Amino acid sequence: MCYATSDETQRCFREEMFQRRTPQEYNFKDLAGLVAAQKASKVHCRGIKRDCKLNEIAGFHVTENFSLDVMHIVMEGIIPIELGCILSGLCILDKCVTLDTVNREFRLLWG
Question: pTM (2 decimals)?
């Protein structure tokens, strides 16, 4: 929805403080940048990992969607970041769990 950086989201708290993403910038700058980024082995460009299939719906564009998908935010945003912080604390800072133990438990869970 906008081009906020991680730093900006910690300092800015009102919508007008962020640059909104537009369909034109998404289609011509973001997706073009994504192609260049992928050629350089990067996974995203300006927050875009791939073009959204929903943009193929006539009259719809993700940049104009004002209804946030909670599961998208949770699964692709909050959980990976917070889980990374928790595992870093347990494995690196507190040294109470090893990475081998975490990997073994994940294999049991999804094995």
Answer: 0.54
